[in-house]
């Protein structure tokens, strides 16, 4: 009887936690499908007082630009995430092998990159003048490939504490080389940590707008987040000048709040599909890689 009450209490707590997470999303959806006048008059509500798709019509006024930005972001996210996981594991795996010379020195070097970096100006000069990653699609991918020391340490600790050393030694004694051991033994046993690092990299690439602002000149190479931000800034600029200069009523009714929420829905739509893929391994990989060390 006591266990049943405990289970019911746990269920009720998780129901409230789920509602607390879902209700804000439903509120954002409702506001995005409301008219700007109803938001100004009635405020926010879970059900639109006046249903309107004007915010989405305004955002997709030139669909070619937004769809192109979507394609750029998807390309950068997929290519960047896969490449980032390969590079991160290529460094983390040797650091996890106790037989590697100067292993502690290189590990400390990785830790120092978390505390210090080269600075914005040297980074920009290297990327633009030496690597020539400017005003092309690769400018959305390459800057994010700079190793994240935190991800390296998570993956290194996972390899060190989860992959049995005896298994690797047995494979080595059977004649398997390091590359074969890594490809056929370590990677299949490391799905949780790969899912964890993959999720971190996916979110970083998907939400990136800074590289577009710094490196891109051609509109065809903009990322989705930067395009949405530009639309929002244009709306705010027009709205402020409309109020100060008493311009036409059509400009005065620009969808400021509703477009902001509509952009949130447009931005989170595709990335939601990534979570079911990573969810199975995410918590396990994060906790194993972070608790021990």
TrEMBL record:
Cellular compartment(s): Cell membrane
Transmembrane regions: 12-33, 73-93, 105-125, 137-160, 181-206, 261-278
Bilayer disposition of the protein: Multi-pass membrane protein
GO biological process: transmembrane transport
Any one annotated GO CC term: plasma membrane
UniProt domain ABC transmembrane type-1: residue ranges: 70-278
CDD domains, alphabetized: TM_PBP2
InterPro entries listed in its UniProt record: MetI-like, MetI-like_sf
SUPFAM superfamilies: MetI-like
NAD among keywords: no
Keywords, comma-separated and alphabetical: Cell membrane, Membrane, Sugar transport, Transmembrane, Transmembrane helix, Transport
Similarity comment text for this entry: Belongs to the binding-protein-dependent transport system permease family.
Protein name (record): ABC-type sugar transport system, permease component
Organism whose genome encodes this protein: Ruminiclostridium cellobioparum subsp. termitidis CT1112
